Structure formats: structure tokens, C-alpha cells
Amino acid sequence: MRKWFSILLIVIGVGCCVMAIYPIFEMNQKVNESLNEWEGIKDQYQQSDVENKELLVEGVIGTLKITDYDNIIPIRMGTTDAILKQGIGLDESTVKPGEVGNSVLYGHRENILWNLKDVEIGDNITVETLDGTLTFEISEIQIVDPEDPYIYHTAEEPTITLVTCYPFIYMGPTPERYVVKAVLSK
């Protein structure tokens, strides 16, 4: 009897581990699919005579890379859970990266914005759009409440605000948000 009980506990433990890790693997797959989609959009744009880029972009609108880290993260319009499983989501009530104002970008801390915890003021973030590549310099890092208006403060110059859950290692709904603001480099 003890032997079967031990085997049952091992099987349950393995099942719980698989259930905990599977969403991360699924997110990785969706990010890679989005990156492939972005490459297709760029190719289509380069081969097209379309003057209005917006007609080509229905999904991925660009990519983001935190300097010193290898991860390239796709950016999509919207912040639904389905979008955030595919990369970073641009809050549609804010401007697009590179435009004057504050572009608020949300992403899950697991896998998507995990390296954000290691950035420092002065580090660079690169955003690629159909208009070109933009480099932003990190100017502020704060930990705030989820509803803190600081996240949406207006900006007089092109600014991106990256928002993810905090603390980075935490089980369940997180009580705070880790916010990194970066200004377009001159």
C-alpha cells in the first residue's frame, strides 16, 4: 500500500510540474510565431508600393530588445491576455513607440519581460517598427500600485513605459507593478 501511495504522489508531483511549466513553453511558441509574422510583415512592406503602412500591420507592429539581452520581443496592439501571451501589448489609448507622448507597453514577467528586473538607468531599449529602428534610454525605474497614474503620465518627447507584474518571483496575483520609462535617444 505504501509503495502505491508513494508512486501516486510522484505522479501527482510530476503532473503539477508539467502544468506549471507548460504555459511558459506555450508562450515561447507564440512569441516565436509572432516574430515570424513580423518578418513576413517587413518583407511584405519592403516589396510593396503601399504608402499607408497601417494597411499591412494587423498584428505585430514592431519588436523590442533590451540591450545586453538576446530576447527580441514582438509588440502587438492591445493588452488582452491572448495578446500578452504572444509578446508585449501596446495600450491602445497611448501613442505608438516613436511618436511624441507616452507609449505604454505591458508584458508578462515570466519569459517576456523577465530581464527587465536587471536593467539600470542609462541602459538602452531598441524598438524596431516599419518606420525604422529607435533607441530609447532608460530614465526611470519605479515600483507602483497597479492603478498608479504614474504609468500613464504624459510626455513631451517620445517615451516608452514598460509595465510588468512585481515582485518577479511570486505566486498568485501580484500586488505591484514594475515600471521602466525610457526616452528616445537624440
Give a written overview of the molecule:
Keywords: Hydrolase, Membrane, Transmembrane, Transmembrane helix. The chain crosses the membrane at residues 7-25. This is Class D sortase. It comes from Turicibacter bilis. Helix 2 (81-84) links the parallel strand 2 (72-77) and strand 3. This protein has a single domain, classed as Beta Barrel (Sortase, Chain: A). The relative contact order is 0.13. Helix content is 26%, strand content 31%. It has two helices and eight strands, in the order H-E-E-H-E-E-E-E-E-E.
> Helical residue percent?
25-40%
Question: Largest beta sheet, briefly?
Answer: 8 strands, mixed, barrel
Strands, total number = 8
User: How large is the share of residues in beta strands?
Assistant: 25-35%
In terms of quaternary structure, the protein is single chain
The CATH homologous superfamily name equals: Sortase
Output mean pLDDT: 87
What is the total number of structural domains?
1
Q: What's the N-to-C terminus distance?
A: 71 Å
Q: By helix and strand content, what is the structural category?
A: alpha+beta
CATH topology: Sortase, Chain: A
Radius of gyration: 19 Å
The dominant shape is globular
- Report the CATH C-level class: Mainly Beta
Residue runs with pLDDT of under 50 for 5 or more positions? none
| Strand order in the sheet with the most strands | 1-2-3-4-7-8-6-5
